[in-house]
Design brief:
It contains 9 helices and 5 strands, in the order ααααααββαβαβαβ. The chain is an alpha+beta fold. Helix 7 packs across helix 8.
């Protein structure tokens, strides 16, 4: 299996020219060596790779989003498939088939990225509309408050006028002793009406103030939600950036890292030195983000009995856990599980696919999510 994580500094020297080989040349050499070791004919290897390229192109072509959002990349993949099909020798067929498969997968990745950008734009537009609706509500409530204040002022003025009339009535009653009792009663009634008007005005004022407070709280809530969403996106982007060296990918279960079969000896659970370096990077990340826990899943191919594969998958998951604990990650933050051959990433019909299935997946759980809730059935 080709090690796709070989860095430029690790490229192999061409034994003939003495120069470092590029990724494409190194891939072809690796495939050739794999053919010699496995005893498989180069023609069959080329045809298998061509079939993989065709399948990848068919998958990309069947996705309407890829046709719409990444037509150029899809066209490049189609041309590469045609070049592979028309190749006159096995080496060219292998090369163009590999290129075609990669171009098809690039087209799907580009389409997914553009779809994510469109979703972000839609959320921004909805947020802007919500803010505009909030502003309109504030304006309406402000008008209602102003109207209530005007009505309260009118009531106050009416009460003042009524009180003035009552005072005049009282003075007249003093002058005219006859009917004094009747005038006093009218004055009391007028005072009561004035008090009622004052209380009503106070109630309207309180109602308007309550409406203002509710509007302000709604504005603060909307702002807090928008800020929370922005923080969540920024944190997700930052986490993916920090884990870019480990080929992390964001999923519904959390951030998933895959430690492939190339990091373990065949049939063994001990980590290779390269795997140690990958796990050390993961441990440094978990130390920096103590609120993130991990679920470590061990997987195998279909070779061997169910019990053997289940045990091997558990041992590989435990090896990663032991390394993380040794690098300072607390034991309660780590959960391990072995699935054996139960959940293959690829059909176990070729050596290459079986190698892809011999893996350990590390799921960096979202904050607050329990590992048990993310385990597979």
């Amino acid at each position: 299996m080709t090690n796709q994580h070989t860095s430029k500094g690790d490229r192999i020297m061409n034994p003939v020219t003495g120069k470092r080989m590029g990724d494409g040349a190194w891939w072809i050499l690796s495939v050739g060596l794999a053919v010699l070791v496995a005893g498989c004919g180069p023609s069959k290897m080329a045809k298998d790779q061509l079939e993989k390229a065709r399948q990848a192109y068919a998958q990309a072509k069947a996705d309407p989003n890829v046709k719409t959002l990444a037509p150029i990349h899809l066209s490049d993949a189609e041309k590469a498939v045609q070049e592979a099909e028309q190749s006159g020798n096995t080496t060219d067929m292998l090369h163009y088939s590999y290129v075609a498969e990669k171009k098809a997968r690039i087209a799907m990745v580009v389409a997914e990225g553009k779809m994510a950008d469109g979703e972000t734009q839609r959320l921004n537009e909805e947020t802007a509309k919500a803010i505009e609706r909030k502003k309109e509500l504030d304006r309406q409530r402000e008008l209602e408050k102003k109207k209530a204040e005007e009505e309260a002022e009118k009531a106050r003025q009416a009460a003042a006028a009524e009180a003035e009339r009552a005072a005049m009535a009282k003075a007249e009653t003093e002058k005219a002793r006859l009917g004094a009792a009747s005038e006093a009663e009218r004055a009391a009634k007028a005072k009561a009406e004035a008090e009622q008007a004052r209380l009503a005005a106070a109630a309207e004022t309180e109602k308007a103030e309550k409406a203002r407070r509710e509007a302000e709280q709604a504005r603060l809530n909307a702002a807090a939600e928008a800020e929370k969403a922005a923080r969540a996106k920024a944190e997700a982007d930052m986490l993916m950036q920090e884990l870019s060296d480990l080929k992390a990918k964001q999923t519904e279960r959390g951030i998933v890292l895959t430690i492939g079969d190339v990091l373990f000896a065949f049939g063994k659970a001990d980590l290779s030195p390269k795997a140690d370096r990958s796990v050390e990077k993961l441990a440094a990340f978990l130390t920096k983000y103590p609120n993130r826990n991990v679920l470590i899943e061990g997987h195998t191919d279909s070779i061997g009995s169910d019990d053997y594969n289940l045990g091997l998958s558990r041992l590989r998951a435990e090896s990663v856990k032991t390394k993380l604990v040794g690098d300072g990650v607390e034991v309660p933050r780590i959960t391990t599980v072995g699935y054996g051959k139960k959940h293959p990433a690829y059909p176990n019909d070729t050596d290459a696919n079986r190698a892809q299935n011999r893996r350990v997946e590390v799921i960096i759980l979202n904050e607050g999510v329990k590992a048990e809730s993310q385990m597979r059935q």
